[in-house]
Amino acid sequence: MISSIKYTTPSLSCSAFSTRSRKLSVPTRPHFYTLPVIQNAQQNPETESSISSQRPLYISSTKSFTFLANPRRRVTECQAYEAERSPPIEINIELPHEQAQMEAAQKLKIGLYFATWWALNVVFNIYNKKVLNAFPYPWLTSTLSLAAGSLMMLISWATRIAEAPKVDLNFWKALLPVAVAHTIGHVAATVSMSKVAVSFTHIIKSGEPAFSVLVSSLMLGESFPMPVYLSLIPIIGGCALAAVTELNFNMTGFMGAMVSNLAFVFRNIFSKKGMKGMSVSGMNYYACLSMMSLLILTPFAIAVEGPKIWAAGWQTAVSQIGPNFVWWVVAQSVFYHLYNQVSYMSLDQISPLTFSIGNTMKRICVIVSSILIFHNPVQPINALGAAIAILGTFLYSQAKQ
């Protein structure tokens, strides 16, 4: 008679499998033996040896594991255990060609930042000089530059083109001295360019590292390696040589560039001290800096020049230049913000050393382009002084690191 076979859920209780003999007895005729009943382990949750049907089973030993003819002989137990369900270990292995592609993409990104930064700066200096030649009011010109940048960023935040920064009162307190120094430096540079050639202003502004070392040594008590001090010799000598041989030398323009250097040095010092721990991107940081500088500059611009002078000068400029003068004002205002914004964005991606080198190369581009566009007369000795000053700036950026 054929015994009945029972089936239940796939969960196994391995103690049901048992035999009592090592050897298989071959019957003389076909026999059917009763299969062990597989009980559902989930029906008795209180049993400690119950095995979950939702986890895989691994059989630890299959030795002498078979169905024998005589079920009353020696018992051989089958032991099983639950598989460990720990999460897999993720290992990220970057292949050499993938790493090379990432490095190439990063270099391309930095190159685009630099090219954009230099191009925008050159365009700003050209239009700024055109505006100042026709409208010699640097306080209003500086105010319009800050106002244009502030308006652009407010629109970007309102339209969600750029994410608005999350800042508090402590951020604005730390930003205040930075904004004061930035305002002074911006106005002083604009005053300088209203009196002298763009190339001369940037030659003098290439001496900013000398002011940085001087202020840091006297006021902050910092000491620098000897190569840093030696690099100041060509900077100071080159700037002096260029100033002495400048055909269109003007004391107001010269002092404006010098004050701008000093102000920007203090801006960098205040920025390093007060902005530590402030997680604001370069683009938003400069936007907030422009807005605070605008609030600081506006009352001083009104007091120094005033609306009456601006109205008269505006009418004169429009009558002489025509409608293009309005475009010049808009262009110099917009490009001033754009080139500064890109420079702060590039600072997020590169080291200070690379940024200093980029700033030096930027001045070379501005000097050469302004000479070509405005046809400023340059003597060979004047060009030599500019080259020596810029070389010293490059050596300073190398020695500083």
TrEMBL record:
Q: Pfam families, per this entry?
A: TPT
Q: Where is this chain primarily localised?
A: plastid
Q: How does it sit in the membrane?
A: Multi-pass membrane protein
UniProt superkingdom:
Eukaryota
Q: Where is the Sugar phosphate transporter domain?
A: 108-397
Q: Which residues cross the membrane?
A: 110-127, 139-159, 171-191, 228-245, 282-304, 352-374, 380-397
Keyword Aminoacyl-tRNA synthetase part of the UniProt annotation = no
Q: Name the UniProt key words of this record, in alphabetical order.
A: Chloroplast, Membrane, Plastid, Transit peptide, Transmembrane, Transmembrane helix, Transport
Q: Which GO terms describe its cellular component?
A: chloroplast membrane
Q: What's a single GO MF annotation on this record? A: organophosphate ester transmembrane transporter activity
Q: Which PANTHER family match?
A: SOLUTE CARRIER FAMILY 35 (PTHR11132)
The entry's protein name is Sugar phosphate transporter domain-containing protein
Species annotation: Acacia crassicarpa (northern wattle)
